[in-house]
Each structure stands twice: as structure tokens, then as C-alpha cells.
């Protein structure tokens, strides 16, 4: 059978190779510690689970949901934006729910990209920005995120003829995979740039609530003029240990939100209303819950960074997101170094080039594994001698 080019052209999903390597070790009776995948190990909090139980028993929730989401959910999102960022949103027109942020990110391309159009994406990046564009028939122009620039996009690196043709620009801070954060001035600059070239600014804000050392991440919608040109994607997956429940939302310019609603209403019928009620409960969690959850990651972050430094890997502690992104010692490619860790100490990390060629020379370690496994993984890493 001949499949469509969009399927034929798909790169192998990054984590399939990693899962295979783990399975092969397991078959030899070796217990691998995996810092590979970013999927919170901690439980969805009880108030959120209770909302699902109660929500499942309401007959109204047994029916098709509305694509844009329950008015109560969208109103709760608007309140979150006001409380958290001081941004006022009209819940009826400037907020839409998503079946996880990934769904909205992939479908957003269908709102802006026609065959042959250009999207600008950071490199390295969450792969869905590029794949969504490819599915819509467009191509991606990658801008390398440079360590010396704090992994912020340098707009001067984008050729003017590319900017003139581009339909979308993706940004993501706190960033996966680099852990970088963006100051408000960067968002101001991004908005100005996108207005100048009439580009839809799409911010993946999956990690704004997962931050450390007291750092508070801004929303792109706080930037002056952002509501004219920007849409932001949020997720409760990482914030509230809810990857299994698929609760996300997008907000911003009402025409952009409406376009996404029209695309989605022809593809899906919205997120289960009981899950939306879980989302409301998650947004209602007390600030202390989030502080405690983030404190667990912060402790893990500090342990991992300190062991990596001891063995000669120059990792730096990130202020946000769930990953340690670090250059590897000279003399290895990312894949070779990841393979060395697996071969010599049975530890899995993600090779940086899995997030694009700009990730070559780096590895990513996820902080989403239980503390006892982190400790065992670090004992193993401590035995490793790299460089010198
Ligand atoms: C995890 C992640 C997402 C996906 O979130 P879901 O709501 O679970 O779909 C989106 N963007 C980035 C950068 C992520 O790391």
C-alpha cells in the first residue's frame, strides 16, 4: 500500500528507539534507569481525581462536549490568566480548551499554513511544531538556539526574505529541551517582530508553572500588542501531573482562537467534560500544592546537576521545565555519549539531536522519575569517567 507523503516523511518517533534499547537491556536481565521521557512520576492530586469521579456521574457529561469547551472551564482559564499574569481574557472568544496542548499545537498549523508556506521554529525544539507544519503542507525554517544567547531566538538570525514569507513563529519558554527562560523583553521583541512581518506568534507555555528558585515565568500575552497577533498554548500535564488526562487550553487573539475552534470542530468533538472538570479542579489547587510539587523537582535538579559536574559534565541548573540540558564532553556525538551511558552504566538519557540538529553535542535528562531511581541513576553515573 502506498501511504501519503506526510506519513512516509515522518521521522521515527524519538522515544521509540529509546524504549527499544531499554527493552533489549531488560531482556538480558539488566535493570535500566531511564532519564529519557518527560512524564511526571507523581500522582494526579486527589481533588482533581475526585472531580473526575463526580463528573463521571453527571448525565450531561455523558453527551458530546462542545468543541470550544465548557463555559465554566473557559471562565476558570480566564481567571487563571487574570490572577497569574494580570491578563484579562474574554472566556467566550479568547479561550478554547484542548485535548492536551500537543493536539492544539499540531492543529494550529491547519489554521495558518497552506501548502508551500513557511513556519519558523527554534532548533532544538519540541518536534510537534515542525510535524504539524509538515502535515499542513508547509516547510519549517529552523533558527538555532545558541547557548551563548541563553537559548533565546536571535531575530537577526532570520533572513528577511524568510520572515516576509513566514506565516507562523513558534516559541517555548520555559523551554523544552533546554530549560531556558525568557525575560518579558524577549516576548516584547517577538511581538514587535511578528507584527512587522505579519506572522502569527505561537507560544508553547507548557512549563510556565513549573519553575524553581522563586522564578515566576511570564505569559506572552502580557507583552504590549500581543493580543493582536499571538496565541498561547497551556497544558495541565506537567503542572499538575495530568499527562494521562489530556487537559490543555489555548488563549489569545480571538480570530486565531476562533480559527482553531473551527478546525477542531471538524476533527474532534472536544475534551470529555468530566476531564474539563478535572482541569477546573487543577486550576483551583492551592499555591502550596504547586510549590511542593515543584520543590520535589528542584531537589532532584540539584542532585543531578551536582553529580554531572562531579563526573566532568558541565550541566547548569535550569530555572524552569523538567529537564537538565547539558553539553557533553568533547570527542562524542550526542548519540555516542548516550550509548556510552547505556552500555557502561545502564542509564538512559535522550540524545540532544533528537530535538533537531541544533541539539547535537547535548543530552537531556528528565527529572520525572522517582527519587529512589534518581539516586540509583546518580550512583551509576558517579562511576563513570568522562573526559580527562
Ligand atoms: C509535554 C509538552 C507538551 C504537551 O503537553 P500535553 O498537554 O500533554 O499535550 C507541549 N509542549 C511541550 C514543550 C511539552 O514538553
From TrEMBL:
Its cofactor is pyridoxal 5'-phosphate. Keywords: Aminotransferase, Transferase. Its EC number is 2.6.1.-. PROSITE patterns: AA_TRANSFER_CLASS_1. InterPro entries: Aminotransferase_I/II_large (IPR004839), LL-DAP_aminotransferase (IPR050881), NHTrfase_class1_PyrdxlP-BS (IPR004838), PyrdxlP-dep_Trfase (IPR015424), PyrdxlP-dep_Trfase_major (IPR015421), PyrdxlP-dep_Trfase_small (IPR015422). One of its GO terms (molecular function) is transaminase activity. The keyword Metal-binding does not apply. CDD domains: AAT_like (cd00609). Residues 31-381 form the Aminotransferase class I/classII large domain. Belongs to the class-I pyridoxal-phosphate-dependent aminotransferase family. PANTHER family: AMINO ACID AMINOTRANSFERASE (PTHR42832), L-GLUTAMINE--4-(METHYLSULFANYL)-2-OXOBUTANOATE AMINOTRANSFERASE (PTHR42832:SF3). This is Aminotransferase.
Amino acid at each position: 500500500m502506498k501511504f501519503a507523503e506526510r506519513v512516509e516523511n515522518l521521522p521515527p518517533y524519538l522515544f521509540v528507539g529509546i524504549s527499544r534499547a531499554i527493552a533489549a537491556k531488560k531482556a538480558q536481565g539488566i535493570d535500566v534507569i531511564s532519564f529519557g521521557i518527560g512524564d511526571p512520576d507523581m500522582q494526579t492530586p486527589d481533588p482533581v481525581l475526585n472531580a473526575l469521579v463526580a463528573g463521571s456521574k453527571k448525565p450531561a457529561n455523558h453527551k458530546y462536549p462542545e468543541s470550544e469547551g465548557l463555559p465554566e472551564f473557559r471562565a476558570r482559564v480566564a481567571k487563571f490568566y487574570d490572577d497569574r499574569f494580570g491578563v484579562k481574557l474574554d472566556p467566550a472568544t479568547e479561550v478554547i480548551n484542548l485535548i492536551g496542548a500537543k493536539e492544539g499545537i499540531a492543529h494550529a498549523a491547519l489554521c495558518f499554513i497552506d501548502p508551500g508556506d513557511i513556519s519558523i521554529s527554534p532548533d532544538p525544539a519540541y518536534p510537534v511544531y515542525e510535524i504539524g507544519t509538515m502535515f499542513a503542507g508547509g516547510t519549517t525554517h529552523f533558527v538555532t538556539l545558541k547557548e551563548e544567547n541563553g537559548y533565546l531566538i536571535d531575530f537577526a538570525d532570520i533572513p528577511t526574505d524568510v520572515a516576509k514569507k513566514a506565516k507562523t513563529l513558534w516559541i517555548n519558554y520555559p523551554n523544552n529541551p533546554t530549560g531556558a527562560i525568557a525575560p518579558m523583553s524577549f516576548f516584547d521583541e517577538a511581538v514587535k517582530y511578528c507584527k512587522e512581518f505579519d506572522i502569527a506568534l505561537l507560544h508553547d507555555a507548557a512549563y510556565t508553572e513549573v519553575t524553581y528558585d522563586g522564578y515566576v515565568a511570564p505569559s506572552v500575552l502580557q507583552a504590549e500588542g500581543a493580543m493582536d497577533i499571538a496565541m498561547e498554548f497551556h497544558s495541565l500535564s506537567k503542572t499538575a501531573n495530568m499527562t494521562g488526562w489530556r487537559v490543555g487550553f489555548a488563549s489569545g487573539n480571538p480570530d486565531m482562537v476562533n480559527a482553531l475552534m473551527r478546525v477542531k470542530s471538524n476533527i474532534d468533538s472536544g475534551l470529555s467534560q468530566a476531564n474539563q472538570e478535572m482541569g477546573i479542579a487543577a486550576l483551583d489547587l492551592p499555591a502550596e500544592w504547586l510549590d511542593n510539587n515543584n520543590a520535589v523537582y528542584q531537589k532532584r535538579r540539584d542532585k543531578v546537576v551536582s553529580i554531572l559536574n562531579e563526573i566532568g559534565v558541565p550541566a547548569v541548573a535550569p530555572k524552569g521545565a523538567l529537564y537538565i540540558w547539558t553539553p557533553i564532553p568533547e570527542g562524542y556525538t550526542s548519540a555516542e555519549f548516550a550509548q556510552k551511558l547505556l552500555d557502561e552504566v545502564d542509564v538512559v538519557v535522550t540524545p540532544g539531536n533528537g530535538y533537531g540538529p541544533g541539539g547535537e553535542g547535548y543530552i537531556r535528562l528528565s527529572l520525572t522519575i522517582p527519587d529512589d531511581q534518581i539516586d540509583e541513576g546518580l550512583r551509576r553515573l558517579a562511576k563513570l569517567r568522562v573526559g580527562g
